[in-house]
Amino acid sequence: MDTFVQQLINGLTIGAIYALIALGYTMVYGILRLINFAHGDIYMVGAFVGYFLSFQLGFAAGPSLVGLSVVLVGSMIAAALVGMAIERFAYRPIRKYARMTTLITAIGVSLLIENLFVAKLGAAPRAFPQLLREQSYTLFGNAAISKSQILIFAVSVLLTLLLQWVIFKTKVGTAMRAVSFNLNSAKLMGINTDFIISFTFALGSALAAAAGVLTAQYNPQIDPLMGIITGLKAFVAAVLGGIGNIPGAVLGGLLIGIAETFVVGYGQNVGVPTTFRDAVAFAILILVLLFRPTGLLGSTVQEKV
Amino acid sequence: MKRILLALGLISTLLFAFACERKGGPGAGGQTGPIVVGYYGDLTGRTSNFGQSTKNGVEMAADEINKAGGISGRQIQILSEDDEGRPEKAATVVTKLIDQDRVIALLGEVASGNSLAAAPKAQAAKVPMISPSSTNPAVTAVGDYIFRVCFIDPFQGDVMAKFAANTLKAKKAAIMLDFNSPYSRGLTEFFEASFTKLGGQIVNKQSYTQGDRDYKGQLTAIRSTNPDVIYVPGYYGEVGVIAKQAKQLDIKAPLLGGDGWDSTQLWDLGGDSLNGDYISNHYSVDDPSPAIQKFVADYKARYGNVPDALAALGYDAMKVLADSIKRAGTTEEPKLRDAIAATKNFTGVTGNISIDGQRNAVKPAVVLKLQDRKYVYVETIYPEGMTPPAGAPATSGAAPASAPPASSPATSASPGKP
Question: What CATH number corresponds to the domain at position B309?
Fold first, then answer.
């Protein structure tokens, strides 16, 4: 029982990270019908900005809550700018062309970011400084939860609620929903669609950067290619939940995280090697596409954002 | 279509030109001018700390030899290639070093997987290759031109099993291995065999792959079986994170590892979580022997940090090669090969090196305890049949578990043809 609860906590932790990234995929898809494959790399950029910020501002010296908050917010802002720049220079000029064009551009941007980082910084993993004084708490029995895990849960819940509020309670959120409903009609109604699209990229990228910094507290190893697999899994999470659907992205992320951890934790008992952990996400993707292409929460008349 | 054909034509012409080019090259295998030695290693990839340290050691040794007048008046020139830690790249750069640069010998790699990819190229071209620190037995089994100056995994796995069972009095061990690494799988196999033979029990075995980001699933499964020790024969990048996450899960059992842990980055990743863990290694910087202390001081003066075992092995590999060239009196490959094979009782930083019939080095291992960013010397474990030097702390003799007869001094002096 202890072990089960522990695995559940482990799964929810990485699930929360996937959920944060999946939100970006789902928002951009909701608005542009574009799978932004460079999104996983924004997650990586966020982690690296956090890394350099911690050293530049001297927070790497020792754990402090101030340092953590500054680094977290700083990398979110930086990633938001990067996301907006990518949209402005890579996607906007070709927005009117066929969707395949933008999709391939997205893959190109992803490769460009990865290789720029490898060229500039090398592919060797770096150790992210400890910004949080690590400590474990025993829940009950033997199940332990660490401070970094609590942080991941707290921040991701907070950010998701904040996102819900932005989308449903603010003017810009209303505009986002209008654009996702129909871009051209929204434009005719006087909505500055370019700004709204840019804003959506900024939001999604900030969330991904938060995920990057949070993971780095949990697992301090960062490298320029860290966004590939994590990004793909978050994409699967978005599809699983129903791409374009915000609660779906969160649900999908958590489910993928739990499924993955359970494969590692219990797979061996039924003859599934732990190395299948990455395969699970993609097996789920295939099953979803076969039996419920709209995803768990998606429907034909879904509300897309 | 025409354009494509034209392009193809151009490319093949270029390739042909390159193919012709390779006969020349700076080394050219001559008997005068500098002696060109090829070094290949991971300088930018996931295990780049390994490759950099080894390169530092190799270059420092070469510089010392050159400053002392070279080898019969000829200077040593090191040509370095980066294989990014990828086996396929290792094979490519070694082919380049052999065909284009005409090196007389190769030094490299650290990771057994990369050495295994490059060794067949060296063997086919009959260019002697000395791996400073690949410990998987299969590496030198590739052929009679492949050597190493470190001990092998059967011995290293055995050392840790003996240490766990005899010194730590462990009864139950769990293993967490790097699934795709020959190094990790080899150590696992030999640790398991030896530990079970000593009456211990392997209660759980989990695996991960390089680049995984979360190890808690495996560690939770291990925790539920309550082991006394956890053997993690991996490389520093993953191990540092594993140690950290193990502590987050409140796992109290010490982690045991091998020489793959030895890197400064291990501490950046794992921090205090690593305290109380143990590794087997090639040498200890705390060893008071003057040879080691001089090496440590020189290295620190030159590079500004404490040399890890890989730097020491790189240094020794270069020195063994230089010694063999001197004894052979030539850089002609077959004669050089025989001279390397005849190396006996060469005094290196990492102990006395004798090359045995399987082209492996026979030497002791040390067990180090990890404490506050330091490796604290615990004990030395000698291979069976090798007697500790007088005055050295004598400890249990460890035999290579299922190894080729790596130890008896009688077989180690077989210089002739294989």
Answer: 3.40.50.2300
Q: Are residues B143 and B158 in the same domain?
A: no
Tally of structural domains, chain A: 1
Domain span including residue A270:
2-126+143-291
Q: Let me know if residue B77 belongs to a domain.
A: yes
Tokens of B355: 């090359």
Report if residue B27 sits inside a domain.
yes
Count how many domains chain B has: 2
- A205 close to A21: Cβ distance less than 8 angstroms: no
Domain presence at residue B102: yes
- Asked if A122 lies within 8 A of B216 by C-beta distance, the reply is no
Average pLDDT over residues B400-413: 37
Residue A26's H or E segment, with its range, is helix A2-32
Q: Are residues B226 and B275 in the same domain?
A: yes
Res A81 pLDDT > 70: yes
Per DSSP bridges, beta strands A136-138 and B35-41 are unpaired
* Chain B residues with CB within 8 Å of chain A CB: 44-49, 84, 179-180, 206-209, 211-214, 216-218, 220-221, 223-224, 237-238, 240-241, 244-245, 247-250, 265, 268-269, 271
Q: Is B255 found in the same domain as B204?
A: yes
Residue B172 lies in a domain: yes
Q: Are residues B340 and B328 in the same domain?
A: yes
Q: Which two tokens stand for residue B190?
A: 């030999």
- With CB atoms and an 8 Å threshold, state whether B249 touches A6: yes
**Pairwise pLDDT comparison (A187 vs B27), residue with the higher score:** A187
Question: What is the span of the domain harbouring residue B257?
Answer: 154-281+365-398
Q: What is the CA radius of gyration of chain A?
A: 19
Residues of A with Cβ-Cβ distance to B49 under 8 angstroms = 124
pLDDT computed for residue B27 by the predictor: 44
The residue among B44, B48, B216, B235 with the most chain A CBs within 10 A of its CB, best to mutate, is: B216
pLDDT tens for B6-27 read 565 556 555 555 444 444 444 4
CA distance A303 to chain B (A): 34
- Among candidates B155, B224, B187, which has minimal Cα distance to B381? B155
pLDDT in tens, B355-380: 998 899 988 899 999 998 888 999 88
**Mean pLDDT score of chain B:** 85
Bridge pairing between strands B172-178 and A136-138: unpaired
Asked if B227 and B86 sit in the same domain, the reply is: no
Q: Which of B82, B181, B184, B214 to mutate to test the interface with A (most CBs of A within 10 A)?
A: B214
Same domain, B121 and B212: no
CB pairs under 8 A between A and B: 117
What's the angle, vertex CA B319, arms to CA B358 and CA B312, rounded to 5? 85
Whether the Cβ atoms of residue B382 and residue B354 lie closer than 8 Å to each other = no
pLDDT of B399: 42
What is the ipTM score, two decimals? 0.81
